Amino acid sequence: MATTSDFKNGLCIKHNGDLWKIESFQHVKPGKGPAFVRTKIRNLNTSRVLENTFTAGVKIEIVRIENRAHQFLYKEGSDTYHFMNQKNYEQVAIQKNMINAPEYLKEGSTVDIMFLAEDEKPLSCTLPPNVILEITFTEPGEKGNTATNALKPAQTETGVEIKVPLFINKGDSVKIDTSNGNYIERVK
Question: In angstroms, rounded to a whole number, what is the distance separating the alpha carbons of residues 101 and 160?
Answer without folding.
Answer: 11
